[in-house]
Amino acid sequence: MPFGDPAAFRTVDVPDGLGAIAIEGSGHEFTLKLAGDPIAQDAAVESGSIEWMAKRLSGPHDPVYGIEEWLEPPEWDALRQWLRHVEPGDDPTVPLRPLLNLLAPGLYEVGIATLPKPFIVGTEPDKLRTWYAGMEDKRDQSAIVPVHHWSPRPDVVAEYKDRCSTQRANPASVVLTHPDSEVYYLLDGHHKLAAYMEAGRDPLCVVIELNPDSDFGYPDHLNEPSTEYRVEIKTRGDGLLSVVGKDGASALRIAGEAYVVEGYTDSGSCDRLAVRSGDPRFRKRMRRLSQWLREPDPGSAAEMTRTVWKLLAPGRYGLRRWVPRQYYVEPFHGNRYARWYDGISTPCSGTALIPTDQWPPANGETVSEYRRMIRDGARPLVLTLRASPPEAENELEEDCVAFVIDGHHKLAAYREAGIAPHCLDIAKLSDEVACAPRDLRDVLGGDEVLTANAANLMRWLRSPHRI
Q1: Which residues contact residue 268 at a Cβ distance below 8 angstroms, ignoring those fewer than 6 apart?
Q2: CA angle, 283 as apex, 357 and 448 as ends, to 5°?
Q3: Interior angle at CA 290, CA 288 and CA 293, nearest 5
Q4: Distance between alpha carbon 370 and the CA centroid of its chain, in Å?
Q5: Angle at 299 between CA 254 and CA 422, to 5 degrees
Q6: Which runs of consecutive H residues, i.e. helices, occur in 53-182?
Q7: Is 282 helix (H, G, I), strand (E, B) or coil?
Q8: 453 CB contacts (<8 Å, ≥6 apart)?
Q9: DSSP 3-state assignment of 119?
């Protein structure tokens, strides 16, 4: 029986957690620790493709690692009974409190979810298990590392299967994860998980996700449009999303790899070029970004800002709600590059918005729905990211680039409605030099036609005068 729509995830503060359960790491490598001992690891595999690995670690075989063996306060029985049958509208933070108190101090996102297409990894100590992580997004597949014995007892698994089918019960397991990890660590409910998998059903889980960027508060100035940026500093995290260089020689990187590079061609005019990578892995990565940024309220600057802040690499950023007086969209064509201002010495068309997804957007119904909302007075946000703030005081004289990270359907709807788009515009403030030649080389991917078109830009990036 379908579980139904669960309640939204809740942010839970654990200020005085005992630290008996902790997930540590950042970027592309994570370790689960129980009682201070490393129990399991997962990490990206540097092999030139999207590959992830997980393994159990040889360590003490103490029954403390089986939650059912712990000395329990009375609250544990209430938690156990609740996990035997969970309803869609339940607030998990109340019965889960005794377990939450065992976590390392910090903020966590807690909610109920079904994990699609689960598969078990890391069951044998020190035996590396790798898989193609083309899923990139944990919504496509669910790699699960048990912290207790696997496989569970068949008789108990059979009992849970019977309860699910005949009693319509919704038993739930408990998993811990990190937003940048591709793995869920199974803390409790091994028999329940096995029962769901044997029945061919996606398992129901209470998901506890570490919030590594809990120090960011929503800037109120984003409630109203402004031409000025407010500076915010991000100090932690490796960041899935980054922009490097400066306007006229910048690169948009996803997961540390260049996706789009733009710059002047140094042809004697203001001729500018943008090249997009042909690596198919970026389709998954951009979809992952879009899913993270999709919120129930598409016009909520607060929710979008909190989400994108978690994804950004550390650095100094300017944030504003931007309503451009003049702009144009410069799409990529089949050959993966766009060229504009060819032969023009004095540009006056405003900011060039560079799509990172298909343009025009494919889903006409979505565009129509946003157009209706806009004409009714809503102002959904388009997310733009740029390497540096524009230098021109007069916006109509700007010759600059902003990458459209999310909101392509919204942008198309604004254009159809004849209304200037509202953008959450983020500018990197710390770089003073051009992006690296390797960024351009990576997006060219050895294509001879693209390499010839970008030859002048490559020469300039390699010159000692690129600062």
Answers
A1: none
A2: 85
A3: 110
A4: 23
A5: 75
A6: 75-84, 97-100, 154-166
A7: helix
A8: 273, 275, 337, 339
A9: strand
What's the CA gap between 410 and 416, in Å, rounded?
Answer: 10
CA distance 213 to 177: 15
Give the helix/strand (H/E) hosting 293: helix 281-293
Buried b (16+ CB within 10 A) or exposed e, 129-138: bebebbbbbb
- Average pLDDT on 124-139 reads 68
Q: Is the pLDDT of residue 219 over 90?
A: no
Average confidence (pLDDT) over 415-424 = 95
Looking up tokens 């915010």 gives 232
pLDDT band for position 4 (cuts 50, 70, 90): low
- The token pair at 126 is 């020190």
290 falls in which pLDDT band (50, 70, 90)?
Answer: low
Q: What is the three-class DSSP state of 76? A: helix
Show the tokens assigned to 2: 């379908």
d(CA 293, CA 111): 18
**The pLDDT value given to residue 288:** 60
pLDDT tier, 392 (very low <50, low <70, confident <90, very high otherwise)? low
DSSP track, 214-256: TTPPPPGGGGSB-SS-EEEEE-S---SEEEEEETTEEEEEETT
Single pTM value for the model: 0.58
